[in-house]
From TrEMBL:
<comment type="similarity">
    <text>Belongs to the ABC transporter superfamily.</text>
</comment>
<keyword id="KW-0067">ATP-binding</keyword>
<dbReference type="InterPro" id="IPR003439">
    <property type="entry name" value="ABC_transporter-like_ATP-bd"/>
</dbReference>
<protein>
    <submittedName>
        <fullName>ATP-binding cassette domain-containing protein</fullName>
    </submittedName>
</protein>
<dbReference type="GO" id="GO:0016887">
    <property type="term" value="F:ATP hydrolysis activity"/>
</dbReference>
<dbReference type="InterPro" id="IPR050763">
    <property type="entry name" value="ABC_transporter_ATP-binding"/>
</dbReference>
<keyword id="KW-0813">Transport</keyword>
<feature type="domain" description="ABC transporter">
    <location>
        <begin position="34"/>
        <end position="265"/>
    </location>
</feature>
<dbReference type="GO" id="GO:0046677">
    <property type="term" value="P:response to antibiotic"/>
</dbReference>
<dbReference type="InterPro" id="IPR003593">
    <property type="entry name" value="AAA+_ATPase"/>
</dbReference>
<dbReference type="GO" id="GO:0005524">
    <property type="term" value="F:ATP binding"/>
</dbReference>
<feature type="region of interest" description="Disordered">
    <location>
        <begin position="1"/>
        <end position="30"/>
    </location>
</feature>
<keyword id="KW-0046">Antibiotic resistance</keyword>
<dbReference type="InterPro" id="IPR027417">
    <property type="entry name" value="P-loop_NTPase"/>
</dbReference>
<dbReference type="Pfam" id="PF00005">
    <property type="entry name" value="ABC_tran"/>
</dbReference>
<keyword id="KW-0547">Nucleotide-binding</keyword>
<dbReference type="GO" id="GO:0005886">
    <property type="term" value="C:plasma membrane"/>
</dbReference>
Amino acid sequence: MAARPPVHHSGTDPGGGAHPEGGAADRSGVPPAIRTEQLTRRFPSGVALDALDLEVYPGEVLALLGPNGAGKTTTIRLLNGVLSPDGGTASVLGLDPAVDGHAVRQRTGVLTENAGLDDRLTARENLEAVARVRGMRPPAARRRVDELLDRFGMGDRADVAVQGASTGQRKRLALARALLHDPELLFLDEPTSGLDPAATRDVVELIGSLASEHGRTVVLCTHFLGEAGRLADRMAVLHRGRLRASGRPADLAAEMWQGVPARVELSAPADARVLGLIRRIDGVLLADPTPDGARVDTLHRDVLARVVRTLVEAGIEVYAATPTPYTLEDVYFAIEERLGFETPEESGGDREPAEVVS
Ligand SMILES: Nc1ncnc2c1ncn2[C@@H]1O[C@H](COP(=O)(O)OP(=O)(O)OP(=O)(O)O)[C@@H](O)[C@H]1O
C-alpha cells in the first residue's frame, strides 16, 4: 500500500515521550528475551549504536527499522556477542552476550545480510557442517537437514555445490541454517531481499508461523515495510545509532494522529454539498474529496456509521465506507519525515534531528 502523507491535527504531540506498549510487551512477570540498557558501540567512523534501551518479549516479532547505516546490523551483532559493546549492557535469554557469546549463539539463529555460506560445499554439506558445530547427533542432524532442504524448496539442489546458486537459493539455505537447531530467538537481517515473490511469500509465512505457532521470538531487520507490518507486533526505529521510536504501530499512530481515517466511496468525488453534510457531523475531523468519493477521518469508528446514514438520508448513494487504519508503513514514513532521515552527507554533518518518540 502506498504511504499516506502524515496527517497533522491540532492537539497531537509528536514529542510523545514514553508510550503504552500493549500486547506481547505487556506480559507482567515474564522476563524479556532481550533487554538492553544504554548499549553503545563506536567505530572509528563514529557511534554506530548510541545508548540503546530496548526490550523484546518471548514470542514477539520486533521489526528493527531504520535507513542504511542506522545501526540495525550492529545491534544484532552485539546481541549475539559477535561484537563487544563500548558501553551499556545486554541480556539475551538471560545471558550476557559480551561474556557468554557462545552460549547465546547456541540458542539463537542468525540470518545475516551476507549469508556466509561455503561455496565449495553442497547445500547439504553446508547445513551438516553447521549441525556438527552445534553438536547435533548425526542421525538427528540428517533428518533435520533433509526436512529443512525440503521445506525451503532446496531438495533438488541438495547435493550441488553452492557456488553458482542464485541469491534466492543462497538466502533460503541461509535461513535453513539459522533454523537448524530450532532456536528460541531468531535474528533475521533482510530475510527476503533477493527472493522472488513466491519465495518471499513462503518466507514471510514461515516467519509468522515461527512466532505465532511455535512461540519463537524474532528480531526482524528489513527495508520492506509491508512485510514488517504483516509480521511485527512492535516496531523500533533507529536513526544514526539512536532509538527514535518504539512501540506497537497502532499506539505510535495514535500518538501521531487523531482519529481513524476511512474511505467513503460515492458515485463521484464528494462535492461541496456532500463535504458540508459530512463536516457538520459531530466527531468528523476531516473530510476531503477523492477521485471516488471522500476521505473522512472520524474520532471513533461509530461516527463513520453516522456519516453513511446522513448521506443515505440525503439521497446520496454510498457504495462503501471502509476504515483504513494507519499501517506500520504510514507510521515509519511519518517518523522519517519528522526526523529528516537524510544521510550524514546530505544533512551536512552532525546536525541532530529533533526527537520524535522514544
Ligand atoms: N565493522 C565496522 N567497522 C567500521 N564501521 C562500521 C562497522 N560496522 C558498522 N559500521 C558503521 O556503523 C554504522 C551502522 O552500521 P550498521 O551496519 O549497523 O547499519 P544498518 O542499520 O544495519 O544499515 P543497512 O540498512 O545498510 O544494513 C554505519 O555508519 C557503518 O558504517
